[in-house]
Design a protein that fits this description.
This protein is an alpha+beta fold. Helices cover 35% and strands 15% of the residues. The strands form 2 sheets. Strands 1-2 form a two-stranded antiparallel sheet. The protein has a two-stranded antiparallel sheet with strand order 3-4.
Length: 91
C-alpha cells in the first residue's frame, strides 16, 4: 500500500476511523478528513510512535536474531520394522 486514505488504512488495520485519526494526532500528524491520503512515511511515523508508546525501544525492533543449533549428542535407536527385523536410526 503506497498511498491510501485514512479510512482504507483503518479498514485494513481493523480499528475505527475515529480511533486511527486520534492516534495520528497523538503521533503529531494532523488528519481531519477520513478521505485524506496517508503516505508510507506517515504510516511508518505512526508505527514508530505506537511501538514507542507500548514500551518497545528502537533496539528491540531490529528484527529476528540469528538462531544457531548445535548437536549435543548423537545416539542410535532401534526401531522395529514391518518385516520383523529391527532398524537402527541415528538420533
Amino acid at each position: 500500500m503506497s498511498e491510501v486514505t485514512v479510512r482504507q488504512l483503518a479498514g485494513v488495520v481493523g480499528i475505527p476511523v475515529d480511533r486511527l485519526i486520534e492516534q495520528l494526532s497523538e503521533a503529531g500528524m494532523e488528519f481531519d478528513n477520513p478521505d485524506e491520503s496517508i503516505s508510507n512515511k506517515d504510516k511508518m511515523q505512526l508505527l514508530k510512535f505506537l511501538r514507542h508508546s507500548h514500551g518497545k525501544r528502537d533496539k528491540d525492533i531490529v528484527g529476528p536474531s540469528k538462531v544457531t543449533l548445535k548437536r549435543r549428542h548423537v545416539s542410535e535407536l532401534r526401531v522395529p520394522a514391518s518385516t520383523g527385523r529391527s532398524k537402527t536410526v541415528n538420533v
